[in-house]
Here is the input.
Amino acid sequence: MKKLTSILALFLLLTSFRHQGYHVGEIADDFQLKNVNGQMVSMANYPEAKGFIVIFTCNHCPFSKKYEDRINALHKKYEKKGYPVIAINPNDAAQYPEDNFENMVKRAKEKKFAFPYLHDETQAVAAMYGATKTPDVFVLQKENKDLIVKYTGAIDDNADDAKAAKEKYVEQAVDELLAGRSVSVSFTKAIGCSIKWKK
Here is the structure.
């Protein structure tokens, strides 16, 4: 009995260190969050979509700012092919007022975001997905009624210069899925600012 208790304790200890959130191959849950236009948005609103490019981002982070045009370009390129972008701002606006909802609305207008920009005010969605940075990407593919995680990580390998990026991870992943192939690079380390969690 003591041996069994020890094994159980070890198991609980090891699992407590497991990275929280979704891993490649796991089923992701839908969400419902407020868009900058005031409407509630969920992935269920896209019945014709083949999948989604879910990006956790924000207003204030220098890395997020560098990627804004690229995120817009991803949406414009892949929305018609069945993989729209859904961007989510999870940051605590009490710490960073630049990331509050009113400023999200302003930023979306200034940058002419073509994609939904959602406010994860409670941070529940970021925690559920296991997002850690801004930006942090989750490429999902619809399989029957499930949303399967196919890629997580960075958008590409050069935050400073889009034209100098040699590895466009998100584009490659979505292109492979559209071609009916497995994603060859399914995980990279997201590079950006840490998500500002509520204290």
Notes: The chain has five helices and ten strands.
